[in-house]
Design a protein that fits this description.
With 432 residues, this protein is an alpha+beta fold. Among the domains are: 74 residues, PDZ domain (Pdz3 Domain, Roll), CATH 2.30.42; 81 residues, PDZ domain (Pdz3 Domain). The chain is built from 12 helices and 18 strands. The strands form 7 sheets. A 4-stranded antiparallel beta sheet has the order 6-5-7-8, with no helix packed on it. It has a 4-stranded antiparallel beta sheet with strand order 12-11-13-14. A hairpin with a 2-residue loop joins strand 11 and strand 12. The longest helix is centred in the last third of the chain and has 36 residues. It is elongated.
Length: 432
Amino acid sequence: MLNLILVVIALGLIITIHELGHYLVARFFGVEIEAFSVGFGKPIAEFERGGTKYRISWIPLGGYVKMKGENPDEEIDEGQDDGSFRAKSWWKRALIIFAGPFANLLLGILLFIFALLLPQKMEDVPAIVHSAKGLWEEHFSPGDLITDVDGEEVLGFSDFLVKLTGDEPNEIRYEREGETFSLMVEKAQRDSLMSALKPAVNTVVGEVFSGMPAWRAGVKEGDEIVAVDSVQVSDWYEMRSLIMGSPHSKVELLIRRGDEEFIRNIDLEENISMQDQRMIGISYYMPIKSTHKLSLGEALIYGPASALNFVAMNYQGIFMLIKKPEQLKSSVGGPVMIASMSTQMASRGLSSLILFLGSISLILMVMNLLPIPILDGGHILFAVLEGIFRRPVPLKVQEVLQMLGFALLIMLMVFAFYSDISKLLYRFIYTR
């Protein structure tokens, strides 16, 4: 419950930052601000300065900025810049509207940078070789334990890959049946080696992603998958191949939890971010735990890069959803899923939770810039069309389009709530 309250407050602050972006740019262009509120509803506290009423209100679900002349029904004197929003030129109005989503972009980038400056909880699997391909089969065999690179101890398989750096050849030491071997790898050979080796991974479940089929079916971290469609499995790769290659819409898993074994029939869902591969929403368990902290310089590089990549992936996902609208149900989540995911992120540590909140801010930017009437993107489109055709979009046309946009948003909200509730009910039935 506490997590839910904190998420609501955090979301409110993210939306308030969005409104602050509108407020600051509107002020810069000389638009009179009638009211700026943190929160909705009846004000807890209020004061007036410079003609603007500043409020803190009871409902912490965002905020709002009220500009003079933002209502299309208000009359303004033609050509007179009297501090009214609608009296400003089209490009100034477009920038004022764009400032809200842009504020969310900046907030998302800052949260990503801040999160990366905190100690990162790292997880890894043992540096034990499962298989090797190509010329590397001559050197590595299944079960080999990689112990160090250039004299530095290897903590896990990912740590081994990270240590393959520098301009000089790397010396890799590994053990096989009590005997130690050494191998020199040239810089030009690293990519070949990194793609050729697979780590040994068992079938114990690590993370179960909220809202996905495995989560709905009650699968939990630490469960061991024994068989897929009555076929015994001994490693993750075999299990994954059987699940993704199943000819059916569901897959039958035999699961071991402690001393108990039980069967779950789990839906297979296509994932638009994974080239429509079918999956159930689990990752393998990584027993090796460590912490890692980036320098300020690294955080300043990786933070913005990660945030912008996240934005690009979301726009790509929206494009794929437009092409395949039947995947909308499995891709849309509402406030319940947000709360569930935030709890999952909080369990990983403060850094992961901050990254999640930064992602929410970026998603708010992505969604608001969609060219749908009633959203910021729709208003920007109206302003740009005015600039192109030298006259505003007729008021009646704007009103009709905004009504359609509002109806679309309501349907999406209802659909998101329905999706949340159906997923929760499905999980409740399986975990009774």
